[in-house]
């Protein structure tokens, strides 16, 4: 009795046997048993990955009731809890989705070192989002977060939605931390 003795051998192998016809034309059904039920018919749009595009991003936001804008450069953006987010497409075929958010407040240049420490600690402990600072020409410091995903083979609508939600919520977690560390003085009662 060998290791594979549980597999029954098929001795007659015509193109389609009568048993196979009853079991949906599945040639291995005699060996493996028939399924309890047939798989549902697949529609062509279910679960198919399709390439990214600005139009697809806009359609996804509109379909799910989110307010968004397209700026003069053609970039898609929106505000979540007063924080500016952009949804960029990079790469030769626009296959890299980047969700980039900016904290809604800014720091004075004198706080650059401590803000860099917060970002470095975040990046050392977590894979994403990437947190970093930008110093503007006026000397003010802005904190930015980003999550980038290579979607060379496209994405389903569900996958796209998951990536957009993850990018916004993960970046918002960093911004919430900054809100805790640096409470807005204007938000407090006098």
How would you portray this structure in words?
With 190 residues, the protein is an alpha+beta fold. Helix content is 31%, strand content 20%. It has 5 helices and 6 strands, in the order H-H-H-E-E-E-E-H-E-E-H. The chain has helices at residues 18-22, 29-32, 54-63, 112-125, 157-181, and strands spanning 69-70, 76-80, 83-90, 96-102, 130-135, 141-150. Strands 1-2-3-4-6-5 form a 6-stranded antiparallel beta sheet. The longest helix has 25 residues, at 157-181. The chain starts with 17 loop residues before the first helix and ends in a 9-residue tail after the last helix. This is YbjN domain-containing protein. Residues 15-48 are annotated as: Disordered. InterPro entries: Put_sensory_transdc_reg_YbjN. It comes from Actinotalea soli.
